[in-house]
Amino acid sequence: xxxxxxxxxxxxxxxxxxxxxxxxxxxxxxxxxxxxxxxxxxxxxxxxxxxxxxxxxxxxxxxxxxxxxxxxxxxxxxxxxxxxxxxxxxxxxxxxxxxxxxxxxxxxxxxxxxxxxxxxxxxxxxxxxxxxxxxxxxxxxxxxxxxxxxxxxxxxxxxxxxxxxxxxxxxxxxxxxxxxxxxxxxxxxxxxxxxxxxxxxxxxxxxxxxxxxxxxxxxxxxxxxxxxxxxxxxxxxxxxxxxxxxxxxxxxxxxxxxxxxxxxxxxxxxxxxxxxxxxxxxxx
Length: 284
Fold this sequence. Notes:
Elements: H1 5-22, H2 26-41, H3 49-64, H4 71-94, H5 98-109, H6 122-130, E1 136-137, H7 139-145, E2 151-155, H8 161-174, E3 178-183, H9 194-200, H10 202-205, E4 207-210, H11 225-233, E5 236-240, H12 241-248, E6 255-260, H13 264-270, E7 277-281
Parallel strand pairs: 1-7, 2-3, 2-5, 3-4, 5-6
Antiparallel strand pairs: 6-7
Helix pairs in contact: 1-2, 1-3, 2-3, 4-5, 4-8, 5-6, 5-8
């Protein structure tokens, strides 16, 4: 997915939101935003939205010395999601179609996105999304992908959300499909890292690997050899959230994208409406 001019406006909002977590000094905000403006004036929209957003966070980190401004928010998201986990697990266990329920819960977790200024309330958003139909659904195709001797890669997205992902991972494991879960190798916005995977228990459930970088989505220039090998060798992939969709939607591998469309640019690319939940096969 290529960036649009609208993405430039979004980048400034992302930057200011992040700076306000670090300091309330308007002069610092002005200076850093000016640096970002100079960088943007020389950049191209040929890259993905994730790709052109990445340097914004690098500029902020270098200017302020704060490399994980969302650390507190990530921890809180994990804690709240873990409190909700038993009730959510009961929903999946008692559902007429557990796979559909697990996909809905994982999609509900995708409301936790601090990078694009999307307002969310976990306790409120989850029951609302459980009652929504997928605007695009590849569930029946996906169901046929699972089974013994199948290898599956799950590209994680955000902290907190990773707790919701566990229920879908657990259901996939029940089909005797091998699951590998991928997280970022360092902090970027509120994306899940190995620390989050360990804290919420994902590492006790399946093998967890890192992408090799702290890029939004997947930066194929920075991805590790191990990650690339898994990505190319597995039978099926789930790409969770905006960043993974933006950076992987033109890949040839067998990928299913699971997300809530939280900006108009992504919604248009998906062929959905703003606010829709989508489970889309890359070949659709």
